[in-house]
Amino acid sequence: MPRVVVMEHIRDREKTLFEEEETKMLKKLMLSTALSAAVATGAWAQSSSPMDSKPERATQAQPAMKDSSGKMNFVSSQKPDQWLATKFKGTDVLGSDNEKIGDVSDILFDKTGKVDAFIISVGGFLGVGSKEVALAPSSFDVVPGQNGSSDKLKIAATKDQLKDAQNFARYEPPRPTATTGSGTMGGGMKPAGSPSPSAR
After folding, report:
1. What letter does residue 42 receive in the DSSP assignment?
2. How far apart are CA 85 and CA 109, in angstroms?
3. How far is CA 176 from CA 72, 179, 187, 192, in A?
4. DSSP symbol at 106
5. Among 40, 161, 55, which Cα is nearest to 106's?
6. Per-residue pLDDT reduced to its tens digit, 11-63
7. Three-state secondary structure call for residue 200
């Protein structure tokens, strides 16, 4: 009988840990989505297509930040030449032949908010068998939508060229190693260039 109680306790503890981890992941996802939207809106507003006049540099295109006087600069509304990340993701990408070759699957930006690349999903069917390719924003031209359709992005490449391009590798942070209680000391990674324990 005690074994059953222990097993139930273990299952309950595993379920609790799983739910806590799931909650943490959802919070991170929501935070990164909100941050992406704020950054992409400001970055897209700063870039211009050949058809647009160069927009004036406005502090309202930035997320709420303090200026030198300590006041917050809030953005009150979206301008016609700005995109929301939620709408930008999924934007069709056209090739040099004006045929759809993929869509925007993500946006890569640095800690300062500068957009480094648009991640394009190419090939496959419903996401299966597709690959991701990252291209700098300067690689794209905006093609205005016709008859009420949304704007599209165009690049000077074909679908085959993107399929042959290098895959985009997402950063995977190193996972911490767990100790198993095997009695070994110093179970972490050794610094680069340090001698192995047997050479000491």
Report:
1. H
2. 12
3. 38, 10, 11, 17
4. E
5. 40
6. 776 766 667 776 666 566 555 665 565 555 555 555 444 444 333 334 344 45
7. coil
Q: How confident is the model at residue 135 (pLDDT cuts 50, 70, 90)?
A: very high
What is the topology classification, in CATH, of domain 2-49+84-164?
Answer: SH3 type barrels. (2.30.30)
Q: Which residues contact 132 (CB under 8 A, 6 or more apart)?
A: 105, 106, 119, 120, 121, 122, 167, 168
Going from N- to C-terminal start, the domains of the chain cover 2-49+84-164
**Structure token digits, residue 192:** 């680069």
H-state helical runs in 47-197:
85-88, 159-164
Q: What is the pTM assigned to this prediction?
A: 0.52
What are the tokens at 144? 């205005």
Strand partners, 13: none
Amino acid at 15: K
